Amino acid sequence: MDCIICGKQVVNENNRLQKKVKDYLRTTSELDVKHRWIKQWKICYGCSESYTNDHLVGNSEVLQKIEEQKKRKKQLGKALRHKREQEPLAELRAYYIEKYIDYATCKAEQKGQHIAKPPPLKNSRQYDAAYIAYVKSSKSTAVSIVRNLVKDIDTKGKWIDVRHVEKRFLSHSDGDFSFIIVELFSRKQKPSYPKKMAEETNSDYKNRIAYITWQTATADIHHQRTQGIQGDVYIVLPCLKNEQESMYEKHYIVWDHSHLQFKRVRESNQYVNILKSPIWRYEIVAAKQINHQQLRYIEKNLYQIIGKTHKKSAVTLSIFSPQKKKGAASKLKKELKGERDRKN
Ligand SMILES: [Zn+2]
Description:
This protein is α+β, with helices and mostly antiparallel strands. The protein has 2 domains: about 1-85, no CATH class; about 125-245 and about 280-344. Helices cover about 50% and strands about 20% of the residues. It is built from 12 helices and 7 strands. The protein has a 4-stranded antiparallel β-sheet. It has a 3-stranded antiparallel β-sheet with strand order 5-4-6, covered by helices on one side. Helix 1 (about 15-25) runs antiparallel to helix 2 (about 35-40). The chain is elongated. The N and C termini lie far apart (about 70 Å). The mean pLDDT is about 85. Bound molecules: zinc ion (ZN). Zinc ion binds near residues 3, 8, 43 and 46. Zinc ion binds near residues 3, 6, 46 and 47. Keywords: Coiled coil.
Protein backbone atom coordinates (compact mmCIF):
# COMPACT_ATOMS: atom_id res chain seq x y z
CA MET A 1 0.00 0.00 0.00
CA ASP A 2 1.25 3.49 -0.79
CA CYS A 3 0.85 6.50 1.47
CA ILE A 4 -1.87 8.76 0.09
CA ILE A 5 0.13 11.85 0.99
CA CYS A 6 3.74 11.22 0.10
CA GLY A 7 3.33 8.13 -2.06
CA LYS A 8 5.85 6.13 -0.05
CA GLN A 9 5.25 2.42 0.21
CA VAL A 10 3.89 1.42 3.61
CA VAL A 11 5.69 -1.83 4.37
CA ASN A 12 7.08 -3.14 7.65
CA GLU A 13 5.54 -0.23 9.51
CA ASN A 14 2.41 -2.03 10.57
CA ASN A 15 3.38 -2.62 14.19
CA ARG A 16 4.32 0.97 14.84
CA LEU A 17 1.24 2.25 13.04
CA GLN A 18 -1.18 -0.05 14.82
CA LYS A 19 0.36 0.90 18.15
CA LYS A 20 -0.46 4.51 17.37
CA VAL A 21 -4.08 3.59 16.77
CA LYS A 22 -4.23 1.57 19.98
CA ASP A 23 -2.69 4.39 21.98
CA TYR A 24 -5.17 6.80 20.50
CA LEU A 25 -8.13 4.55 21.31
CA ARG A 26 -7.02 4.46 24.90
CA THR A 27 -7.92 8.13 25.28
CA THR A 28 -11.03 8.32 23.08
CA SER A 29 -13.79 5.98 22.06
CA GLU A 30 -13.77 6.88 18.40
CA LEU A 31 -11.08 7.20 15.77
CA ASP A 32 -10.61 10.52 14.04
CA VAL A 33 -9.84 10.70 10.33
CA LYS A 34 -6.10 10.55 10.83
CA HIS A 35 -6.21 7.42 12.94
CA ARG A 36 -8.77 5.79 10.69
CA TRP A 37 -6.35 6.29 7.82
CA ILE A 38 -3.48 4.95 9.86
CA LYS A 39 -5.50 1.86 10.64
CA GLN A 40 -6.29 1.37 7.00
CA TRP A 41 -2.63 1.75 6.03
CA LYS A 42 -3.48 4.81 4.02
CA ILE A 43 -0.71 6.99 5.40
CA CYS A 44 2.84 6.09 6.25
CA TYR A 45 4.38 6.41 9.67
CA GLY A 46 6.35 9.49 8.66
CA CYS A 47 3.23 11.32 7.52
CA SER A 48 1.30 10.20 10.59
CA GLU A 49 3.99 11.93 12.63
CA SER A 50 4.09 15.13 10.63
CA TYR A 51 0.34 15.81 10.30
CA THR A 52 -2.34 16.33 12.89
CA ASN A 53 -5.94 15.34 12.28
CA ASP A 54 -6.91 18.98 11.66
CA HIS A 55 -4.20 19.20 9.05
CA LEU A 56 -5.54 16.19 7.21
CA VAL A 57 -9.15 17.28 7.30
CA GLY A 58 -8.96 21.00 6.70
CA ASN A 59 -5.59 22.00 5.30
CA SER A 60 -5.87 22.72 1.60
CA GLU A 61 -2.21 22.06 0.93
CA VAL A 62 -2.45 18.56 2.32
CA LEU A 63 -5.74 17.91 0.57
CA GLN A 64 -4.14 18.92 -2.70
CA LYS A 65 -1.26 16.56 -2.08
CA ILE A 66 -3.74 13.75 -1.46
CA GLU A 67 -5.57 14.63 -4.67
CA GLU A 68 -2.34 14.55 -6.65
CA GLN A 69 -1.34 11.26 -5.10
CA LYS A 70 -4.75 9.79 -5.99
CA LYS A 71 -4.35 10.88 -9.58
CA ARG A 72 -0.87 9.46 -9.77
CA LYS A 73 -2.09 6.19 -8.34
CA LYS A 74 -4.90 5.98 -10.85
CA GLN A 75 -2.48 6.46 -13.71
CA LEU A 76 -0.09 3.96 -12.22
CA GLY A 77 -2.93 1.51 -11.78
CA LYS A 78 -3.88 1.90 -15.42
CA ALA A 79 -0.32 1.37 -16.50
CA LEU A 80 0.00 -1.63 -14.22
CA ARG A 81 -3.24 -3.17 -15.46
CA HIS A 82 -2.01 -2.64 -18.94
CA LYS A 83 1.24 -4.29 -18.02
CA ARG A 84 -0.56 -7.12 -16.31
CA GLU A 85 -2.48 -7.87 -19.43
CA GLN A 86 0.67 -7.91 -21.46
CA GLU A 87 3.22 -9.43 -19.16
CA PRO A 88 3.15 -12.74 -17.42
CA LEU A 89 2.96 -12.59 -13.63
CA ALA A 90 6.54 -13.79 -13.25
CA GLU A 91 7.88 -10.62 -14.83
CA LEU A 92 5.65 -8.44 -12.74
CA ARG A 93 6.84 -10.28 -9.69
CA ALA A 94 10.47 -9.75 -10.68
CA TYR A 95 9.78 -6.05 -11.02
CA TYR A 96 8.03 -5.86 -7.68
CA ILE A 97 10.62 -7.98 -5.90
CA GLU A 98 13.43 -5.80 -7.12
CA LYS A 99 11.72 -2.76 -5.67
CA TYR A 100 10.95 -4.60 -2.46
CA ILE A 101 14.54 -5.78 -1.97
CA ASP A 102 15.79 -2.22 -2.34
CA TYR A 103 13.25 -0.99 0.12
CA ALA A 104 13.72 -3.71 2.74
CA THR A 105 17.52 -3.67 2.59
CA CYS A 106 17.55 0.07 3.05
CA LYS A 107 15.18 -0.25 6.02
CA ALA A 108 17.38 -2.92 7.61
CA GLU A 109 20.46 -0.77 7.25
CA GLN A 110 18.69 2.22 8.76
CA LYS A 111 17.60 0.15 11.71
CA GLY A 112 21.18 -0.84 12.47
CA GLN A 113 22.69 2.59 12.08
CA HIS A 114 22.98 3.37 15.75
CA ILE A 115 25.68 1.52 17.57
CA ALA A 116 25.90 2.90 21.04
CA LYS A 117 23.12 5.30 21.72
CA PRO A 118 23.89 7.73 24.50
CA PRO A 119 21.33 7.58 27.29
CA PRO A 120 18.53 10.07 26.64
CA LEU A 121 19.13 13.23 28.60
CA LYS A 122 15.76 14.47 29.70
CA ASN A 123 15.52 17.89 31.28
CA SER A 124 18.85 18.73 29.67
CA ARG A 125 18.77 22.13 31.39
CA GLN A 126 19.87 20.43 34.60
CA TYR A 127 23.17 19.46 33.02
CA ASP A 128 26.00 21.72 32.04
CA ALA A 129 27.17 21.97 28.46
CA ALA A 130 30.39 20.08 29.17
CA TYR A 131 28.47 17.04 30.37
CA ILE A 132 26.06 17.05 27.44
CA ALA A 133 29.03 17.23 25.10
CA TYR A 134 30.69 14.36 26.98
CA VAL A 135 27.67 12.05 26.76
CA LYS A 136 27.47 12.61 23.01
CA SER A 137 31.20 12.27 22.48
CA SER A 138 33.25 9.23 21.62
CA LYS A 139 34.95 9.61 25.01
CA SER A 140 31.93 8.31 26.87
CA THR A 141 31.71 5.36 24.48
CA ALA A 142 35.42 4.69 25.01
CA VAL A 143 34.94 4.72 28.79
CA SER A 144 32.12 2.20 28.61
CA ILE A 145 34.17 -0.04 26.31
CA VAL A 146 37.10 -0.03 28.75
CA ARG A 147 34.88 -0.44 31.80
CA ASN A 148 32.58 -3.13 30.50
CA LEU A 149 34.42 -5.08 27.85
CA VAL A 150 38.13 -5.22 28.59
CA LYS A 151 38.61 -8.14 30.95
CA ASP A 152 42.35 -7.56 31.37
CA ILE A 153 41.97 -4.13 32.95
CA ASP A 154 40.63 -3.94 36.48
CA THR A 155 38.68 -0.69 36.63
CA LYS A 156 37.09 -1.33 40.00
CA GLY A 157 37.48 1.72 42.23
CA LYS A 158 39.07 3.69 39.38
CA TRP A 159 38.15 6.67 37.26
CA ILE A 160 38.79 6.21 33.58
CA ASP A 161 40.30 9.23 31.88
CA VAL A 162 40.42 9.00 28.09
CA ARG A 163 43.79 10.31 26.90
CA HIS A 164 43.08 9.54 23.30
CA VAL A 165 40.40 7.91 21.21
CA GLU A 166 40.92 7.56 17.48
CA LYS A 167 38.10 6.98 15.04
CA ARG A 168 38.85 4.26 12.53
CA PHE A 169 39.98 5.75 9.25
CA LEU A 170 37.22 5.91 6.62
CA SER A 171 34.75 4.11 8.85
CA HIS A 172 31.14 5.18 8.45
CA SER A 173 30.43 4.89 12.11
CA ASP A 174 31.40 7.34 14.84
CA GLY A 175 31.59 4.47 17.32
CA ASP A 176 34.24 2.62 15.34
CA PHE A 177 37.63 3.20 16.96
CA SER A 178 41.08 2.05 15.91
CA PHE A 179 42.55 2.59 19.35
CA ILE A 180 41.83 4.00 22.79
CA ILE A 181 44.37 5.18 25.35
CA VAL A 182 43.16 5.59 28.91
CA GLU A 183 44.68 6.56 32.23
CA LEU A 184 43.17 5.14 35.40
CA PHE A 185 43.03 7.12 38.62
CA SER A 186 42.05 5.80 42.04
CA ARG A 187 38.78 7.19 43.28
CA LYS A 188 39.79 9.52 46.07
CA GLN A 189 36.65 11.64 46.08
CA LYS A 190 33.42 9.75 46.56
CA PRO A 191 30.29 11.02 44.86
CA SER A 192 27.40 11.53 47.22
CA TYR A 193 24.23 10.31 45.65
CA PRO A 194 20.86 11.82 46.52
CA LYS A 195 17.75 9.68 46.99
CA LYS A 196 15.39 9.15 44.12
CA MET A 197 12.66 11.77 44.01
CA ALA A 198 9.10 10.55 43.94
CA GLU A 199 8.25 12.29 40.68
CA GLU A 200 11.41 11.01 38.98
CA THR A 201 11.39 8.05 36.59
CA ASN A 202 14.03 5.37 36.90
CA SER A 203 15.84 6.54 33.81
CA ASP A 204 15.78 10.17 34.95
CA TYR A 205 17.27 9.12 38.26
CA LYS A 206 19.90 7.02 36.50
CA ASN A 207 20.82 10.05 34.38
CA ARG A 208 21.13 12.22 37.44
CA ILE A 209 23.37 9.70 39.20
CA ALA A 210 25.53 9.37 36.08
CA TYR A 211 25.86 13.13 35.96
CA ILE A 212 26.94 13.35 39.60
CA THR A 213 29.45 10.56 39.02
CA TRP A 214 30.86 12.40 36.03
CA GLN A 215 31.17 15.65 38.00
CA THR A 216 33.04 13.89 40.79
CA ALA A 217 35.29 12.03 38.38
CA THR A 218 36.16 15.19 36.45
CA ALA A 219 36.98 17.10 39.62
CA ASP A 220 38.94 14.22 41.17
CA ILE A 221 41.02 13.56 38.05
CA HIS A 222 41.76 17.26 37.69
CA HIS A 223 42.79 17.51 41.33
CA GLN A 224 45.10 14.47 41.09
CA ARG A 225 46.70 15.77 37.91
CA THR A 226 47.50 19.11 39.49
CA GLN A 227 49.15 17.19 42.33
CA GLY A 228 51.34 15.44 39.76
CA ILE A 229 49.78 12.03 40.31
CA GLN A 230 50.15 9.70 37.34
CA GLY A 231 47.71 6.86 36.74
CA ASP A 232 48.15 3.50 35.04
CA VAL A 233 47.99 3.88 31.29
CA TYR A 234 46.53 1.32 28.90
CA ILE A 235 46.20 0.98 25.16
CA VAL A 236 43.03 -0.79 24.03
CA LEU A 237 42.40 -1.97 20.50
CA PRO A 238 38.68 -2.48 19.97
CA CYS A 239 37.10 -3.85 16.85
CA LEU A 240 33.53 -3.12 15.91
CA LYS A 241 31.80 -6.18 14.47
CA ASN A 242 28.42 -6.73 12.93
CA GLU A 243 27.10 -9.94 14.43
CA GLN A 244 24.72 -10.35 11.53
CA GLU A 245 27.26 -9.59 8.82
CA SER A 246 26.16 -11.22 5.55
CA MET A 247 23.20 -12.87 7.25
CA TYR A 248 19.89 -12.97 5.47
CA GLU A 249 16.33 -13.65 6.44
CA LYS A 250 13.43 -14.83 4.36
CA HIS A 251 10.69 -12.38 3.53
CA TYR A 252 7.66 -14.16 2.14
CA ILE A 253 5.97 -12.35 -0.71
CA VAL A 254 2.84 -13.66 -2.38
CA TRP A 255 0.33 -12.47 -4.89
CA ASP A 256 -2.85 -11.32 -3.21
CA HIS A 257 -5.66 -12.27 -5.59
CA SER A 258 -8.40 -10.27 -3.93
CA HIS A 259 -6.46 -7.01 -3.94
CA LEU A 260 -4.49 -7.76 -7.07
CA GLN A 261 -1.15 -6.91 -5.57
CA PHE A 262 1.85 -8.52 -3.96
CA LYS A 263 2.04 -8.60 -0.19
CA ARG A 264 4.29 -9.82 2.55
CA VAL A 265 3.01 -12.74 4.62
CA ARG A 266 4.20 -14.81 7.55
CA GLU A 267 4.84 -18.03 5.69
CA SER A 268 4.80 -19.17 2.09
CA ASN A 269 6.90 -21.13 -0.35
CA GLN A 270 7.80 -17.93 -2.19
CA TYR A 271 10.35 -15.70 -0.56
CA VAL A 272 13.23 -13.31 -1.09
CA ASN A 273 16.37 -13.10 1.02
CA ILE A 274 16.87 -9.75 2.70
CA LEU A 275 20.00 -8.68 4.55
CA LYS A 276 19.47 -8.69 8.30
CA SER A 277 19.75 -5.48 10.29
CA PRO A 278 23.25 -5.10 11.71
CA ILE A 279 23.77 -5.88 15.38
CA TRP A 280 26.95 -4.18 16.51
CA ARG A 281 29.30 -5.54 19.11
CA TYR A 282 32.81 -4.59 20.20
CA GLU A 283 35.52 -7.19 20.28
CA ILE A 284 38.72 -6.42 22.17
CA VAL A 285 41.67 -7.28 19.95
CA ALA A 286 44.31 -6.28 22.49
CA ALA A 287 44.74 -4.40 25.74
CA LYS A 288 48.11 -3.57 27.20
CA GLN A 289 49.52 -1.49 29.99
CA ILE A 290 52.25 0.96 29.07
CA ASN A 291 54.43 3.21 31.20
CA HIS A 292 54.52 6.98 31.07
CA GLN A 293 57.72 7.02 29.04
CA GLN A 294 55.94 5.01 26.35
CA LEU A 295 52.94 7.30 26.64
CA ARG A 296 55.17 10.31 26.03
CA TYR A 297 56.64 8.57 22.97
CA ILE A 298 53.14 7.89 21.65
CA GLU A 299 51.90 11.42 22.26
CA LYS A 300 55.00 12.89 20.66
CA ASN A 301 54.58 10.68 17.59
CA LEU A 302 50.79 10.61 17.53
CA TYR A 303 50.43 11.77 13.95
CA GLN A 304 52.81 9.15 12.58
CA ILE A 305 51.05 6.48 14.62
CA ILE A 306 47.63 7.58 13.38
CA GLY A 307 49.11 7.55 9.87
CA LYS A 308 49.98 3.89 10.36
CA THR A 309 46.37 3.10 11.29
CA HIS A 310 45.33 4.51 7.92
CA LYS A 311 47.37 1.97 6.02
CA LYS A 312 45.83 -1.16 7.47
CA SER A 313 42.39 -1.64 8.98
CA ALA A 314 43.72 -4.21 11.45
CA VAL A 315 45.70 -2.19 13.99
CA THR A 316 48.27 -4.03 16.12
CA LEU A 317 50.13 -2.97 19.25
CA SER A 318 53.42 -2.84 17.33
CA ILE A 319 52.55 0.55 15.79
CA PHE A 320 52.84 2.16 19.23
CA SER A 321 56.49 1.23 19.72
CA PRO A 322 59.49 2.72 17.96
CA GLN A 323 60.84 0.50 15.21
CA LYS A 324 64.23 -0.33 16.65
CA LYS A 325 67.03 -2.63 15.58
CA LYS A 326 66.68 -6.17 16.84
CA GLY A 327 69.25 -5.83 19.61
CA ALA A 328 67.83 -2.58 20.88
CA ALA A 329 64.29 -3.92 20.76
CA SER A 330 65.09 -6.92 22.90
CA LYS A 331 66.98 -4.66 25.30
CA LEU A 332 63.88 -2.50 25.61
CA LYS A 333 61.80 -5.60 26.13
CA LYS A 334 64.10 -6.72 28.93
CA GLU A 335 63.87 -3.33 30.54
CA LEU A 336 60.10 -3.38 30.37
CA LYS A 337 59.98 -6.87 31.72
CA GLY A 338 62.24 -5.84 34.59
CA GLU A 339 59.95 -2.95 35.39
CA ARG A 340 56.86 -5.16 35.30
CA ASP A 341 58.51 -7.67 37.61
CA ARG A 342 59.45 -4.93 40.04
CA LYS A 343 55.85 -3.71 40.05
CA ASN A 344 54.38 -7.15 40.69
ZN1 LIG B 1 3.57 9.41 3.78
